User: Which sequence fits this backbone?
């Protein structure tokens, strides 16, 4: 393991402005540098980078930290991997050893899937796999694609996977759970037989399932997939992600398609920044992965009615998550696989270079099954558009859309604005109520968080905290404060950038501490403001102690003890609640 001293040496050697400017163009304004924040959809420079303090902060989304947290977030890697990246950029020897963690649970399941993969691959490259290979070549899937995507072949009864695995002492129950075998009347059979096998990998690249496709004339289903298991959850996987992620980073664009074969065809054709859904709508887990890519999102689903509906549904999911999807609707062929085979890769690349906005797609989509020459259908169409515009915060986009509707359909612009106003007013009332409720609930928490933020930045606030408050009731705040005090006493000083590195390996406080840094709105570290936060915290903590003392008094059976508790209660009320001088 790399030591804290080595991490600090790398941090001090790396100028945060130089490192961040390698990812995002920065412009100096006064003491600080500013750039477009890569962690949200930013159209104007809202990220400030302080060379003096060696930290960055986005005034829009709240992203903040030191040089390592920036690289960690941008590259989507763990903290120590970010340290190594920064060390390499600065030409500093990195002595830490970073190992890819192997799955600690379900080890048998992962081993079984790897054995199945090798078994299927061997079959395809044997004499028995000649016919299957010829089929793949007819589909323009050559040896390079076979190798890149680990394609294999499931054979018939004479070359069964289950015999191999049972001979290696794996249990039938485990094979059943993984969906590799089925069992009827005590007989065990392979689920996949006489099929070309397409392995499915999780986000880390572990084989977790298979898709099997027939390649000879048969009455069976064209495709069958592994059932979900402990290691295979469709909603947590994006097909081809482990191969595509570096190209997505490089191009800052991700293309999302429906089918595995679409992703394979595009990747094999040189369009490597592509991932595929697993036959379901986007889940929260998949959206988080996509959000972490920080890339332009292009949806390219099948050219049929189902594909159009899927485009709307998944585009809406992304939009609701604060992301901005773009849309490509191919014409002439059903899906990207067929499109490339028929028209060539240059044709699909031209489509990718000219996507339409999700809003433009919706303006067409809402016309589905409507006859706009009819008053009812036209009114329904316009209401759908206005209802959708409430999600769009950009006023220019909203105004241009309303003007277009007014001009196209002869509807009064004032009327459209009034309709939008009804929707917006209702929405704003709800938002305002929630905001007020949140502020009321979080008043004490906000005070504690600000106290901690001040302490992270300057030792004088640590000394003031120890003198005037001393502790927090809540464990999460108490744990962070203890680490701050420990760091300060060990180093006789504190600065935010260095403290972030110090807590990077302390999982029990790192996330909570970083959340405080990101959400802090403090600009000036003023002692008067700090005293006010201490006062709020002290009052709230006193209220909790008063409540506890009242409960003790109610349950007390000893007269002398009751008098003593009552005196404590009186002193607490006098000293801490509304009687401060």
Assistant:
């Amino acid at each position: 393991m790399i030591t804290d001293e080595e991490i600090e040496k790398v941090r001090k050697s790396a100028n945060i402005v130089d490192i961040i400017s390698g990812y995002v163009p920065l412009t100096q304004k006064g003491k600080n540098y500013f750039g477009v924040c890569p962690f949200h959809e930013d159209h104007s420079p809202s990220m400030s980078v302080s060379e003096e303090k060696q930290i960055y902060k986005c005034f829009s989304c709240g992203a903040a930290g030191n040089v390592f947290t920036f690289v960690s977030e941008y590259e989507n890697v763990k903290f120590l991997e970010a340290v190594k990246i920064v060390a390499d950029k600065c030409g500093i020897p990195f002595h830490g050893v970073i190992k890819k963690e192997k799955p600690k649970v379900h080890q048998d399941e992962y081993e079984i899937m790897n054995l199945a993969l090798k078994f299927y691959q061997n079959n395809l490259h044997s004499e028995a796999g000649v016919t299957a290979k010829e089929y793949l070549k007819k589909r323009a899937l050559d040896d390079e694609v076979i190798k890149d995507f680990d394609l294999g072949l499931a054979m018939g009864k004479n070359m069964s996977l289950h015999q191999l695995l049972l001979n290696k002492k794996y249990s039938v129950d485990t094979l059943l759970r993984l969906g590799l075998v089925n069992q009827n009347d005590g007989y065990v059979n392979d689920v996949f037989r006489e099929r070309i096998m397409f392995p499915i990998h999780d986000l880390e690249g572990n084989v977790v399932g298979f898709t099997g496709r027939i390649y000879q004339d048969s009455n069976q289903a064209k495709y069958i997939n592994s059932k979900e298991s402990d290691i295979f959850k469709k909603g947590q996987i994006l097909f081809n992600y482990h191969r595509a992620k570096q190209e997505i980073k490089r191009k800052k664009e991700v293309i999302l398609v429906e089918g595995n074969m679409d992703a394979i065809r595009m990747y094999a054709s040189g369009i490597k920044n592509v991932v595929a859904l697993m036959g379901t709508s986007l889940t929260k887990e998949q959206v988080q992965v996509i959000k972490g890519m920080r890339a332009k999102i292009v949806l390219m689903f099948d050219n049929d009615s189902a594909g159009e509906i899927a485009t709307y549904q998944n585009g809406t999911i992304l939009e609701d998550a604060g992301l901005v999807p773009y849309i490509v609707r191919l014409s002439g062929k059903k899906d990207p696989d067929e499109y490339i085979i028929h028209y060539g890769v240059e044709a699909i690349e031209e489509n990718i270079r000219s996507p339409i906005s999700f809003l433009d797609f919706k303006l067409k989509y809402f016309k589905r099954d409507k006859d706009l020459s009819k008053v009812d259908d036209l009114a329904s169409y316009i209401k759908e558009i206005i209802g959708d515009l409430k999600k769009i915060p950009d006023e220019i986009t909203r105004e241009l859309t309303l003007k277009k509707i007014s001009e196209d359909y002869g509807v009064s612009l004032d009327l459209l604005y009034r309709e939008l106003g009804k929707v917006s007013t209702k929405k704003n009332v709800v938002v305002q109520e929630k905001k007020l409720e949140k502020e009321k609930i979080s008043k004490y928490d906000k005070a504690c968080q600000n106290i901690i933020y001040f302490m992270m930045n300057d030792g004088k606030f640590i000394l003031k905290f120890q003198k005037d408050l001393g502790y927090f009731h809540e464990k999460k705040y108490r744990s962070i404060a203890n680490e701050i005090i420990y760091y300060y006493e060990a180093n006789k000083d504190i600065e935010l950038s260095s403290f972030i590195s110090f807590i990077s390996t302390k999982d029990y406080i790192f996330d909570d501490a970083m959340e405080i840094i990101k959400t802090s709105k403090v600009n000036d570290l003023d002692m008067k403001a700090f005293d006010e936060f201490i006062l709020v915290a002290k009052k709230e903590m006193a209220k909790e102690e008063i409540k506890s003392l009242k409960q003790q008094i109610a349950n007390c059976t000893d007269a002398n003890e009751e008098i003593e508790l009552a005196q404590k209660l009186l002193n607490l009320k006098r000293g801490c609640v509304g009687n401060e001088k």
In short: The chain has five domains: 4-90, 107-230, 236-358, 375-429, 436-576. The chain has a mean pLDDT of 87.
